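In the current project phase, work has continued on tokenised descriptions of protein folds. One protein thus recorded appears below exactly as we store it.

——
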Amino acid sequence: MAGDLRSRSALSVKAGRAAIDTLTVQIERLEKLLLKRLDLSPQFRMLKTVTGIGPILAMTIALEVGDIHRFASVGEFASYCRCVDSQRLSNGRKKGEANRKCGNRYLAWAFMEAAHFAIRILPAAKRFYERKRRQRHALIAVKALAHKLARACFYILRDQVPFAPERLFV
């Protein structure tokens, strides 16, 4: 009985592994196709210059943002990326959190991922993160770095200039 159970488990693992391998091949094909089409985009090329943003995150950001000129200011862009708090204020006092889920969840994810990668790769980002982490919770520190990266990406996309980390952490 135990041997029969083991053989069923082994068969199940093999079937699962075959499904994963098949899906991995399909995902790689789709990524290659999208990269060929997006590689021509100036947005995509500029976003890849940002430390922490690789081809997949650049693809996600470029496709989700669309035309950067639809945002009147960097604050509106950061808000759309869910990189700022949503607060309802009355007479300078917080009265609640309204519209917490407004904005683009994929951009929020992309900039949080970029922040995690930037902490590992860029020493200035790590220093910024460590300083914020000492003041607040670690998640808030990552969110602050994601906000900085979102603001930088707004200017990169708007002005079509490459990423300059020395300007980000002044």
